Amino acid sequence: MAGLLTAIPPVALLLPVAILVALLPRRSGHALGVLASALATAWVWVVPDGAYLQTTFLGFEAVLFNVDDFSRLMGLVFGLIAAVAVLYSYASDADGVQTGFALSYVATSFGAVFAGDWLTLLFFWELMAVTSTLLVWYYGGKAVRAGFRYALFHGIGGTLLMAAILQTYVVKGTFLFASVPGGPETAGIAAGLPAALAAIGIGVNVGFIGLHAWLPDTYPRPHVAASVFLCVFTTKTGVYGMYRAFPEGHVAIAYMGGGMAVFGATFALFQNDMRRLLSYHIQSQVGYMIAGVGIGGALAQAGAFAHVFNHILYKGLLFMTAGVVIYRTGEESLKKLGGLRKEMPLTAGAFTVAALSIAGFPGFNGFVSKGIVISASHYSFSKGPLPIGDFYTLEWLLLLGGIGTFMSFIKFGYYAFFHGEYDGSVPDANRLQSVAMISVAALCVAYGVFDSALFAILPFDVTDGAVVSHVYKTYTVPHVVEGVALAVLGLIGFAVTKKPLSKLGRVPDVDSLYNPGAFYGMRALVVGVTELYAAVDRISVNAASAFTSAVANPDALYERVIGGDDEDVRHPLRAGIGLSILVLAAFVTLALLILP
Questions:
Q1: In the beta sheet, which residues pair with residue 62?
Q2: Dihedrals φ, ψ of 199, to 5°?
Q3: DSSP three-state, residue 522
Q4: Of 93, 85, 115, 75, which Cα lies nearest the Cα of 236?
C-alpha cells in the first residue's frame, strides 16, 4: 500500500478529478471533488518522509514527489480546506466547470509544495498561475480585467523566479533541493543576484509591499466560492517557496514581513468592500509568516508554518462568512449592511470565531501561531534600528499589526452584524454552507485550546529546548495579558477612528499609479512605434514615386528644379540628375533590405 501511495503523488489524483468534476452532473461532480480532496488529505498523512519518483525532467534530475515535515503540513491543510471549499461551492450554486478550475488550482498547488527540485516547483508554480487565472476569468464581468492584471503580475514574478533558478543551477550544477539524495551541499537559492531575483519573484505571490495590489484587485471580483479557494493557495505556496529559497532566513525579508503586517492591516481598515478588506488582511497575515521565514531558525520557521496552517483555516472561514452575506443579501459594501446578527445568527457566530482567530485572541488558533512568531522576533532576532523599551523593532511592528487587525475586524463585525437594524428579512446560511463553516470554526477553536495538536504537525518541536532557542509556551500570564491588551487597544482605536473612517471614500493604493502608468505607457509605445513605421513608409513610398516619375520623365523634373529650355544645359544636368536618382534609389533599397 505504501508503495502505491509513493508511486502516485496527489497531483496525479486531483488533476483528473478536476476534469471529471467539470464534466459530471453538478451534484455527483462536487461529491467526487470532496471525496478526492479528503483522500488527498489522508494520503499526505500516511505517506512516509522521503524523496520519491526520482527521474529526469527535461533532461535534468528531478524529484516529482518529495515528502518532509514542511510539505506534509502544507498538503494536510491544502487537502482539508479544499474538501470544505468544494462543499461550500456546491452549497453556493457554483457550477461544475468553476469548481473544476478550482480543483485544478488545488492540484497544481499540491504539485508545487511536493516538488523535490526547483524545476518541478517552477513548472507547477506557473501552472498554478494559469489555473487560478482561469478560475478568476470564468466568472466574467469585472473579473476578466482583474484576471489579466493578475496574470501579468504572476507572469512577471514567475519569470524572475525562473531567472533566479537558472542562475542557481549555474552555481550549483543541479536543480535538486539540498534535502533530497544527490542534492547540493547548500540549500536554497544562490546568494547575490539570484537571491534578489527570487525574493522579488516570490514576493509577488506573497504580496510584498508595492507588489501586492493584485490581491485586493482580484479576490473580490469572482464568484464568492472562488474567493475561498483563491485566498488559500497562491500566497501560502509563496510562503513555502520563500522558505525553500531562504532556509536560513534573511534580515530584509524579516523586516518586509513586519512592514506587510502593518501596511495590510492599515489598508484593510480603510475598506468598505468586505472581500477587499479581507484581501488586504491576507497581505497582513502573510507578513507574520514572511517575518518568521526571514528570522530563520527552528522557532521562527515553526511559527511561520503554524501560522500558514491556522491562517488557511480562519481566512477560508472569513471568506465563507462574507460570501454567505453576499449570497443572501447581494451586497458587497459594509455601508449597505447592518443588524444581520438577528437575521443570520449562525453566520455572525462563525464570523466572530474567525475574527477572534485572525486577531490572535486567547483561546483561538491565531493566538498560538502568531505568538510563536512574535516570540521568535524577540528571542531569535536582533533589536533592530528602532527598539522601543523592551520591544524590538520587528516585534513592535508585528504587535502594531495585531492592533490594526483587531480594529479592522471590529469594524467588519460592527457594520455587518451589530450596527443598526437590517431592512427586511434575510435567511441565514443554508445547510451545507453551515456545515462547511461550523467545521472550520470548530478547528479554529480546537487548535487554539489544544495547542499540542498544532505543535504535533509542525516541522520543529517548539516545546523542546534542544530544538528551539527559546521554549514556547502558549498560555502564560504575560502572553495572555498581551493578547487581551491588543484587543483592548484595538477596541479603543476603532472607537477613536470610527467617525473619520466612516467619511472615507476609496483610499488609493500603489495600483492607482502604475495601472494608469502601464496603460498609457503601453499605448504611447504602441502609437509611437506605429507612427514611426508609418512615417518611414511614407518616406519610402514618396521616394519610390519620385524615382519612378524621374526615370519616366526627366524633362519634367528638370523643369521643376531648373526651369528654362536651354538644350545645352539640359543634357548634362539630365545626366547628373539621373545619376543622383540612381544613387538615392540604391540607398533607399539597401535601407529597406536592412531595416526589419
A1: 55
A2: -60, -45
A3: helix
A4: 75
pLDDT in tens, 405-423: 999 999 999 999 998 888 8
Mean per-residue pLDDT of the chain: 91
- Measured distance CA(347)–CA(319) in Å, rounded: 11
Take residue 149 and report the three cell numbers written for it. Answer: 492584471
Work out whether strand 60-67 and strand 50-57 pair parallel, antiparallel, or are unpaired.
antiparallel
d(CA 216, CA 276): 5
Residue from 456, 75, 27 nearest 240 by CA: 75
Angle between helices 96-113 and 224-245 (to 10 degrees): 10
Q: Give the Å distances, CA to CA, from 58 to 62, 109, 120.
A: 9, 21, 10
Residue 556: all three cell numbers together: 519634367
- CB contact at 8 A, 44 and 6: no
Using the structure block, give the residue that is written with the C-alpha cell 511614407.
538
Contact 244, 121 (CB under 8 A): yes
Q: How far apart are the first and last CA of the chain?
A: 62
More confident residue, 539 or 344: 344
Which positions ≥6 away from 513 have C-beta within 8 Å?
none
* C-alpha span between 222 and 46 (Å, rounded): 35
Q: What is the DSSP letter of 190?
A: P
pTM, full prediction: 0.88
Given this model, what pLDDT does residue 570 score?
47
Residues 493/403, Cβ–Cβ less than 8 Å: yes
With vertex at residue 355, the alpha carbon angle to CA 353 and CA 360, rounded to the nearest 5 degrees, is: 95
**77, burial (CB in 10 Å: exposed 0-12, middle 13-18, buried 19+):** buried
CA torsion angle 531 535 541 546 (round to 10): 160
Count Cβ atoms within 10 A of the Cβ of residue 519 and give its class: 0-12 exposed, 13-18 middle, 19 or more buried. exposed
C-alpha cell read off for 481: 495579558
Structural contact between residues 223 and 94, judged by C-beta atoms closer than 8 angstroms: yes
> Average pLDDT for residues 235-249, to the nearest whole number?
97
